[in-house]
Amino acid sequence: MSAGFTSESLGAKEPNLPGEHERLRQGVLGLLDISAATMANIGPAMSFYFGFGYLAFTAGLASPLTIVAAGVAILFLGNTLSEFTKVLPSAGGFISFIGKTFGGRTGVTTAILTGTGYIAAMASVIAIVGGFFQTILQNYNVAGLQSVPWIVWVLIFLAFASFMMVRGITISTKLAGLFFAFEMTVMIVISVVTLVKFHAHINFQPFEPKNITGGFKGLAEGFPLAIYLFIGWENSAALAEETDNPRKNVPRAVFTSICIMLVAYTFFAFSTVVGFKDNVTALSSATVPFLSVAKETFAVGLFFAFLAGMTSTLGALIAGTNSQARLIFNAGREGLLPRTIGKVHSTRRTPMNALFVFLGLGLAIIGVWGLGHIIGGHATSGSMHALTMFQESSTFGTILLLLVYGLSNLALPFYYKKFHPNLYNPFRHAVLPIVGTLWILVPLYYLSKPGQTAPYSWYPYMALGVVILAIIYASVLVRRDPRIGDRVGSIIADE
User: What angle do CA 16, 10, 244 make, to 5 degrees?
Assistant: First the structure.
């Protein structure tokens, strides 16, 4: 353990703590591994393909500025996550950080909010894996396959991803990293060629605030989706137990990943605007603007762009499930969720139960979503498209995750004051989290404001329902087991 940090400094720890024997394989991942996995979880091709068109619709020509604003907000959150990990590296991530600060009830509540939010977000990725592959088949008129329902491809790719994850964190992380490297290479090449081909349209208008449609309102309306582009930035924290020197490498991976993605997204956005020759109307009406640019740029560009989108969705599925399932796994082994979730494979040391529960519930969400459309009489080709599922499920998941992000910002100064007063820094541990919370309020408001169309108008009430049920469950559980508060965040990654 790093000098200066002891078990006593983190709070008293029970001998033979329940769940402590359910350890993941420690120290098998390096900085490069967790950084690549984090960026694969973000899924730049997948997120940018399906997100930038709406950003252009809301913010107009200066839509790249929406991405810059979102990246800055995520950097504030990155500070919070990094400061926690320096003293409390845990596979529980935000659940451990918030629960250790505010106690057992809050820890259990956070576990449910975090699990529900990530599962809803991952359901959107699970759906788009099959939906995007179906789009590729239809685009190239592959005989006999273009009419196969996208849910069939979902099941096939989900089986492949599950097999890779169960085999072990090392091989699945490296595979996700390779997928990420391929998609980034393709997107960078297409973007560079686009700028060269349409160099006559290169200017700085996309970065001038005066070109934001509707001013601050246009910027703010696209802000929630811009935030979603970065979801997954926190991936490395949940891999702390399997990371070598997590107190240093996790913070490095967090900031490295956010900064690389911020620069990359801004570059892709700029080149896409240039590729559309500053025609915002055409840009915002395109289903996937980057694919349109790739097709326009050079002959094989579209083919490789499709491949990049496919590897991106698969990489996000593998990397995202790997990290996010570990959050509920840790909550299970510490007793915040059913203990069966907190079991590891006896030889591979992978959290198999948590992986299957996570993916099973994500698949169930897709099933309920489809059944709801059928029962409600809205089962049209558009409403039942995987892209519709992606947009709707990811939006709901983002609302819950924003609440968790806000709680983590609130917890940071209290945690340091309580457990590490000698390390407390007013700027890093109070000012930056407060500013980060204020940034988070903007997308939270626009995702929850009245007057939205269904189902988006239901989501604030659904989120409130999840919060209420989580609090009730937490109260009952803590009443039955008062020692839960002592176990939250008790299993330290590098001990």
Answer: 80
Which 3 state secondary structure label does DSSP give 243? strand
* C-alpha–C-alpha distance, residues 133 and 139, integer Å: 10
Give how far the C-alpha of residue 157 lies from the chain's centroid of Cα atoms, to the nearest Å: 19
Looking at residue 22, its pLDDT comes to 86
| C-beta separation of 77 from 262 below 8 A | no
pLDDT digits (tens, 9 = 90+) for 165-192: 998 999 999 999 999 999 999 999 999 9
CB 416 within 8 A of CB 427: no
End-to-end CA distance of the chain: 6
Q: Is 454 exposed, middle or buried (0-12, 13-18, 19+ CB in 10 A)?
A: exposed
Q: Cα separation of 140 and 448, whole Å? A: 40
Over the chain, what is the mean pLDDT?
A: 91
Q: What are the φ/ψ torsions at residue 181 (nearest 5 degrees)? A: -60, -40
Interatomic CA distance for residues 209 and 105, integer angstroms: 44
In the prediction, which pLDDT does 372 show? 80
Q: Which residue has the tokens 């991530």?
A: 93
How many other C-beta atoms can be found within 10 angstroms of the C-beta atom of residue 160? 13
Rounded Cα distance between 70 and 78, Å, is 12
Q: Alpha-carbon distance 89 to 81, whole Å?
A: 10
Rounded Cα distance between 462 and 451, Å, is: 16
The arithmetic mean of pLDDT across residues 237-262, rounded, is 97
Residue of 219, 265, 320 whose CA lies nearest to 71: 265
**pTM score:** 0.91
Q: Which domains does the chain have, with CATH numbers?
A: 8-487 (1.20.1740.10)
Contacts with 217 (C-beta within 8 Å, 6 or more apart), sequence order = none
167 burial level (CB within 10 Å; 0-12, 13-18, 19+): middle
Contact 222, 59 (CB under 8 A): yes
3-state helix vs strand vs coil in the chain, percent to 5: 75, 0, 25
In this predicted structure, the answer to whether residue 362 has a pLDDT above a threshold of 80 is yes
